[in-house]
Description:
heterodimer, A: 786 residues, alpha/beta, 6-stranded mixed beta sheet, 3-stranded parallel beta sheet, 32 helices, B: alpha/beta, 9-stranded mixed beta sheet, globular
Amino acid sequence: MMNERVATLREQSLKAEARVSTERAELMTRFYKSAGVYSAPVLRALAFKFLMENKAIYIGDGELIVGERGPAPKATPTYPELCCHSLQDLEILNSREKVSYTVSEEARRVYEEEIIPFWRGRSMRDIIFDQMTAEWKDAYDSGIFTEFMEQRAPGHTVLDDKIYRKGFLDFKKDIAQSLEKLDYLNDPDAYNKQEQLKAMAICADAIIAFARRHAEKALEMARFESNPTRKKELEKIAEVCHRVPAHAPANFWEVLQCYWFVHLGVITELNTWDAFNPGRLDQHLYPFYKQGLEEGSLTKEQARELLQCFWIKFNNQPAPPKVGVTAEESGTYTDFANINSGGLKPDGSDGVNEVTYLILDVIDEMRLLQPSSNIQLSKKNPDRFLKRACKIIRKGWGQPSIFNADMIVEELLRQGKSIEDARCGGASGCVETGAFGKESYILTGYFNLVKILELTLNNGIDPRTGRQLGLKTGDPAQFKTIEDLLDAFKRQLKYFIDVKIKGNNIIERLYAAHMPAPFLSIVIDDCIAKGKDYNDGGARYNTNYIQGVGLGSITDCISAIKYHVFDQHNLTMQELLEALRVNFAGREKVRLLLLNKTPRYGNDDDYADDIMKMVFDIYYNEVNGRKNTKGGVYRINLLPTTCHVYFGSVIGATPDGRKAGEPLSEGISPVQGADRKGPTAVIKSAAKMDHARTGGTLLNQKFTPQVLEGDSGIDNLAHLVRSYFKMDGHHIQFNVVDAATLREAQANPEKYRDLIVRVAGYSDYFCDLSRALQDEIIARTEHKSF
Amino acid sequence: MTGTIFDIMRYSIHDGPGIRTTVFLKGCPLSCWWCHNPESQSAKKEILFNRDRCIGCGECKTVCPAGDGKCLACGNCAGVCCSGARELVGKTVEPAEIIKEIEKDLIFYEESGGGVTFSGGEPLLQADFVQCLLELCRKREIHTAIETSGFAPLEKLLQLSAGTDLFLYDLKLMDDLKHQKYTGVSNRLIIQNLRALAAQHDNIIVRVPVIPGINDDDGNINKTGDFVSALGIREINILPYHKAGMDKYERIGRTYLLPGLEPPTGERVAELAGILQGKGLKVKIGG
Lengths: 786, 287
């Protein structure tokens, strides 16, 4: 059910072209050019204030929820203080075939004359690359890992319910209290805390001013509005924007508008990764929904309409434009605001309520890329909830994904969170676990597990370049057992993890020193209490992640070596290495042997699955528990976004029969096409991993639509999910589209512009994906049934 | 004791309730024209050859004991065929081996109310073997179903009846002459057996494949419905013909007798369902 207003707004959002807006870059340049001498947090706060006071205010026809990050929908700002795009970058953004952003002549001129001359050499990106060692750069250039913070700021956090309990005027009081308590005599950090707190207060004023500018604009528009209904709406918008987020919201409408201003604040202050999201929106909204219905001030239809308008606002904000490796690892307009529904309440009871179902309706009706959506499924949640979600999944556009809420609690508890904080947690981005409103959980980059194996098989030399990139861990032809290979792999892995973490720790300090986020810090516990910035350990929990990529591929590679070289003696190591070196040219038989006659992950076969567990342990032991610079530690998760395609492109032929340059497996899914025993076998294989020791894993399954037909199709899908979660799986998502349709779409993209598929932890337009990624998705085994 | 199977399929969701594992037993006394598992018919092992996959490496010839003579179905060629073009269909197995495979998906059966289905081929051809499997399942409290053509000595059917939770019983054609033409056997035994089984067993679902131009006429469906409801059976599944098995005929070196036959339209299937519902039967399309 979509009324005319919503249908029009939705259509406008879909049709709007993603383009680069120089508004933010120009304002930032103007600010920094004339800025006085301030501490870093105050400087950043004043910059934020300048933006909030000067950026254009946009209120579109018919809108109920208002506010844009850019001057108009999909006008996407840039962040030159973080990454200053070159003219060449802008040309690439403008002309690339996929995920392009229109860059006008005027924008280029502004960049050439104003932005680039000022920011070149001063952006975080320039500073970071300048600080990195030769080993780091070599590894980065060779595709061993990526670096999340080279074009975007650390982010990855989600909001809890605090902004619905307190307005920013209340936060200002908390800040003032913290300032009063500072002990300048005994606390050597008192000054730093003072500056941080002052900065937060400035930001609180700034967001209130931003909201009130919307109120003024709405009133002005109301004055000239001839349609009396719209006039009233504009007056209502003015009233709402005058109240929130200065004050805690008092009703359903105010809750959504309040969140939206905070959202815009966070994503305007910095281009944080994995756009902020409201977390348990259903639980936050429910008291206001109930109250509104009881008082008669809200109807279900009004609530639905407001939610739909809210949804469209997310879709109006494409990810900030990315270039280079960042564009390769995350090639999508999606900015990963991922709304959680269901799950548990803080007291551990069933969190599903009427708003949960309303939100599921909205997801179903809106069919938008953004926001992304997921359900948090606890064993305490009713089947009706799961089945409602399955019915949306069956429609084939990949939303919502499904998380095991009970497992997420267990993962967070294992990391030392309190039980309440754990239950308020959930998933964000693609599949990442966090304690909402209280944790900074920074993804630092993808890590190419298969490339490490390739180096190990070449005694540390990268076969692509012939350079000694890694350690000399020995001539593999001399390895007597699979354990010899694994030992060498471990040493090689440790070397590169050290390089990565050393780089991370420097980058983390650079952000703490130069790019604090005082606005974000207001809404994340315990930044105000500690007087510390989000980017400097102010959050209650500070976790860093390195995301392992290619688990299925590396498992099959090691399985192939173990099986054919050491167990069955079908091949010598030399023969294998030679076949890889020539990319199987003239050795198709060897390739097919490796491909078809190897025990492979995803078939519930312990031979392969035990290897998966072994690789998992090696990676886990190397990363988990390492210290970051914010008082927290490193943990692992296993997800790829689109990085499995990039990582595959830098690796030669591999022992699983994969040819050079082809994509790696994604998430914890089996290698595309390797799973031949159906979905229960895949799920059993994946569940052999100890998900509790991760901060998120991603399992993709593809079904033909026929498998999910009828009530029994839905029932069995629900059973499949419940069974996986009984076995402590973390997450599962589904693509429901047949390969024939995808091939047809590939051949005739113009006819399939609206075809949305599940990629990694998000959905995307199939036609916007790179050819390699399209092929990869087609190759994922589609589970059929006769 | 051993039996011969040709496949075990997990996440089987159209052969009985819930998520199931279907064990396909090899060998069938019928040879239906529309059979989508032609490799299930012979009780002997066979070599399936998929021409598209063959890379012509010639490895198969070097290990073939028959030379140019008759294939012994020893499976040597399939063993060395890297591309998977040659496949040995048919495996002699011990019950324990099958149970091990069945048990892998216990958690899914429990969650979904599923279990195991013995299909084929014709499971009654290996009744002693199936009985052994049924007993092993019963001990493990796994729900069991048998999908049968009903063409077997009655005592075999009744031998398994007590240990089977659900029968999926095929009734392809009521007209005996047509039945003989299209399946190779008379339906007299099938009909008698169903009558006898229905008197003993209260959980039978009758399944009717809908093959356009062969058994999809109102007359056949009416007769089927009348017969079934008179037996006190409450549920019937209609399985629309599909072409998924067509290319298997080429791989097994046989000619498909229904080339060009299209699946029934959705409307026709719905009409047939309506006829059966009119007789008080619960009808499910697609099993």
